[in-house]
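Entry 12.
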Amino acid sequence: HSTNELLLDPDVNGVKTGYTSKAGRCLIASMFKDGHRLLLVGLNVMDQWEQASRLLHYGHAVLQGAKG
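Predicted 3D structure (tokens):
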């Protein structure tokens, strides 16, 4: 059983979490959607699942807009 809510997103295909005293909560996540791979590195994130999901999907939307 995992508390990682990103694992519920079918487009997210890689996640690694960590913690250091200097960087705080850390997160690396990968998303592959519509032929694009997005990588996210978050340092000192408070709500890592919400922020990561929002940023990955925002990045995808920007890439989709750039195709137009």
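Annotation: The beta strands are 12-20, 24-33, 36-43. The CA atoms of residues 2 and 8 lie 10 Å apart.
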